[in-house]
Amino acid sequence: MSNQDSRPAFQRILLKLSGEALMGDDESGIDTGILARIAGEILELRQLGVEVGLVIGGGNLFRGAGLAKAGMDRVTADHMGMLATVMNSLAMQDTLERVGVFTRVMSAIRINQVCEDYIRRRAVRHLEKGRVVIFAAGTGNPYFTTDTAAALRAAEIQAQVILKATKVDGVYDRDPAKDAGAKMFKKISYTEALAKNLKVMDAAAISLCRENEIPIRVFNIARKGNIKAVISGKSVGTIVGG
User: Fold this and answer.
1) What are the residue ranges spanned by the domains of the chain?
2) Between the N and C ends of the chain, which has fewer C-beta atoms within 10 Å?
3) Which CATH class is domain 12-240?
4) Mean pLDDT in the chain?
């Protein structure tokens, strides 16, 4: 393979992981083996020269929306969910740094003793210096999901693509876990994803990506090597855009 062929398809990406992706086969919590595997794949991206921003959900530890439905004040519940994302971010930072990847956690809410405040220009500078930047605590506001936070941060750092890691191979017309005849899309537009309510990301996130022309690549994080395959320009999963 020539040097030109081995160049990554993207120079700067935003990787969005759900909290559930860190659970493995457990019902909650963090599987350190999963953390180590994902960290190893991110290390491969850095070795290719790819600048990596990362947003991790908190659903493996706490679901604010669930408690809000049960009667808890929504703002309080969402703030608790933001703290869960900080915990996941710190766990990922520790794992990445143990494999030699310089990492910064930047929080949308102020927790100066454990991570930096999110400042866009500083985040971009970290990326330019080759550090992985993990954006924690969502947008810092209640009522917004970590999907929306991922779209917002991707726009702010001018990421070329959002890699949306899931437990299925891509975007389907129906839930593949419930319907064996579900069809996977190779490509779908933002407008179609919204109109069909396909749950790629929430509506605010998809709309923000559409406005800023940021494609979303949805793929299966459980398949080892998928992240690098996407970065190499291979047709993995579903592309949402256009």
Assistant:
1) 12-240
2) N
3) alpha beta
4) 92
